[in-house]
Structures are given as structure tokens and as C-alpha cells.
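C-alpha cells in:
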């Protein structure tokens, strides 16, 4: 994964700096990218091997995780829904404060952590 790491810096993040129900590049500057070397399942849905930009649509109780076929993009300015390879919905979770946005691998989960929120999604091998 490659991503910019924005900081909270005392700002209101969810519903403020990052609006609810709008496409977000999920980081700072260039869109976050994620590469998978083999076909995988994300939350039980198949995603072909490749490099993708990772966008999200944050919501208060549910987030949409988006894998977009155009890997190199600046922000979300030219985001094109028609280029989405996969969309899955996940539940955000309350968490300890994290000042600088990060992604962590925890077993078969990728977890976005920032401010007082974590957003996990499961990636598993295709069987």
C-alpha cells in the first residue's frame, strides 16, 4: 500500500474535514493505492490481481470501500465510478485516538485507523 498520512491536528475529521456520504481519496495528496499479486476475496467478493486506487465513502454507521482500476490519481478529482473494480460495505468501529492516519495489517484484515475510528476490511485467498 502507498498512501499519504494526514494528521488530525485538532480538526473535526468525520463529518468535517472528511464529509459523510461523499467520495474520499482515503489519505492525503495522491489517491491511496493497494496492490494484490493474486486474485483475492475482499469481504467475500472477488477482486482480480492488480494495483488499484482505494477510495471510500464514509458514513456514520457504514462505509463503502472502493477498489478503482485507475491506480495513479491525484486526490479524487477525476474519480470515475465506471472504473470501479469492486465496492464492499463495512462497519466502522470506535477506537483509541490515532493522530496520523495509518493502515495496519491484522491477520487477514486491513484496518484504516485515524482519529477515534478504525475501519477494518477482510482480504482472503480465493479458494
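Residues out:
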Amino acid at each position: 500500500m502507498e498512501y499519504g498520512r494526514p494528521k488530525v491536528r485538532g480538526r473535526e475529521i468525520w463529518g468535517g474535514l472528511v464529509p459523510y456520504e461523499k467520495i474520499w481519496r482515503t489519505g492525503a495528496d495522491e489517491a491511496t493505492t493497494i496492490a494484490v499479486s493474486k486474485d483475492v476475496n475482499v469481504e467475500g467478493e472477488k477482486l482480480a490481481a492488480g494495483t488499484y486506487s482505494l477510495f471510500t465513502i464514509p458514513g456514520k454507521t457504514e462505509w463503502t470501500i472502493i477498489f478503482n482500476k485507475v491506480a495513479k490519481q491525484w486526490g479524487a478529482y477525476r474519480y470515475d465510478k465506471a472504473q470501479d473494480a469492486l465496492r464492499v460495505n463495512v462497519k466502522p468501529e470506535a477506537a483509541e485516538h490515532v493522530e496520523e492516519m495509518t493502515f495496519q495489517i491484522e491477520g487477514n484484515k486491513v484496518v484504516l485507523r485515524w482519529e477515534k475510528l478504525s475501519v477494518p476490511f477482510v482480504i482472503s485467498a480465493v479458494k
